[in-house]
Amino acid sequence: MTWPPIKGSYKILNLKGDTAVVTRASFSLPDNAEFNDCKRIAVIGSCVTENVGIDRMIKNLISNGRVRNIIICGKESKGHNVGNALKNLVNKGVDENKRITNATGDDPKLKVNDELIKRFRKQIQNIKVINSENPEEIIKIIKDLPETKSIEDYVLDIEKKSGNAFKSAINAQGTEVEWKEDELGYFKIETKNNYIVAKHFMKGKEHTVIIGKTALEINKKIIKLGLISDLHHALYLGSELKKAELCLKDSKDYEEDTEDVKEKDYLKTTFIEAKNLSDAWIKALTQAYLYGEKYEVGKYNARTFDLPIIIHVKDALAEPVMNPKAPKYEARNKYAKEFIEGKGIEKENEFVYTYYSRLRHYPESVARSEVPNIASNEELLKTGDKGLIKFDQVREAVKLLKKDPTLRRVVMCTWMPYKDLSLKRMPHAPCLVTVQPRINKGRLDFHVMFKSQDLYGGFPSNVYAITKLQKLMADELGVQVGSYTHYAVSLHIYDNILDTVEELLREEGMIE
Q1: Which of the 8 DSSP states describes residue 298?
Q2: For domain 270-507, which architecture applies?
Q3: Is 387 helix (H, G, I), strand (E, B) or coil?
Q4: Measuring CA to CA, which residue among 54, 449, 463 is closest to residue 279?
Q5: Beta carbons of 302 and 496 less than 8 angstroms apart
Q6: Could you state, in order of their start, the residue ranges of all structural domains in the chain?
């Protein structure tokens, strides 16, 4: 199991460390290099809410019994009083409604179960709050903390439950077992096409091939078929199958007989099929939240969880198109109207680009269409100054499809390469790249491509507006609205809203 199990805005420094450092709303503090040399720090990261944020912290810290200290530092999150809440949780606990006793934040109510809270309070031996962002001061306090007991110093006490107690605990670390061949043969484990493949060999020849999605189902089948006889072999096989299962889940390369799991050198594209675009949004959020790759966005000094995702919805207008819980839900029709009809010349020109201006006022060059594929500077000069024309791609696309509904060449594009491929000329390039309308069996399908897209804050409004455009074009063409297919090379969640996303997914029943 990877630790910590729940993603968030943190850095792992030393898995054997006994201290967690909580920087509250000081988001850049964990990146300070001075912390890297402090061997007692297991994890350092921000926490800005006294409810969901602490819920996540509890789950992460109790999954590593070595962490016995919490140091709370940095700037406090206004109105949430995370430091006060954490200290009171450890020292005083919660009431019958799981509100942290004496906490002063806006809503210090936890959702984790009572057993996890009990384990957390028992595990944490020292907790200190210091209102400082100075790494030297923080590290000094950590070094001055009393040494905590390691896990090996504790013996599980089951006397109350079973009436028996262990006189001594047996340390299993470093145990070696002499290997011997199972008389019923051996297995080779692989992962292919999202399946675990267990190949059984007898006397050097392939005997049986078992495939499955989980280690448990393959283990059960092996036992049922009687393909294993040695206990050591069974234990080894179980651990390898579980490793293969985790590799599939995390899109990593599985290699048998290795301790390390190799990261894949590519981002795995996820395909989502949904009944409507609201459902697609929730499913995409779940995939990016659970399996997204952490990505540093240097330009914005931000972190995201990225996945390339393809979404397909058979009926683009199936309700709800936009989830009522999505940001900007109340403004969806206003946004869609401006996407299709614009905001007026003055307001349109206040932005470095708008989708309306790129789709319906595209500044096309007449001369550009007259030059050869590869033109010299002299040939370009011969075209003369023919200026630019306003090119309404939506109108031209409708005209072409009316003339020939079977065309597959109709593509509306927002990009101006000379401008958009230059950071100097265009600091913010359009995220929407192309919209390809296609008539199929009397229905207008839309195929849409984004170079990158904010999954939580941008996707819902974007697709709502694009499907309105799809309906407009279908009406002008005299056909029904068909399917909607969406491809985003980087569909991402910003890490500073992970708490909000997690709460939404829990409400939707996508995660526990």
Answers
A1: G
A2: 2-Layer Sandwich (3.30)
A3: coil
A4: 463
A5: yes
A6: 10-156, 186-262, 270-507
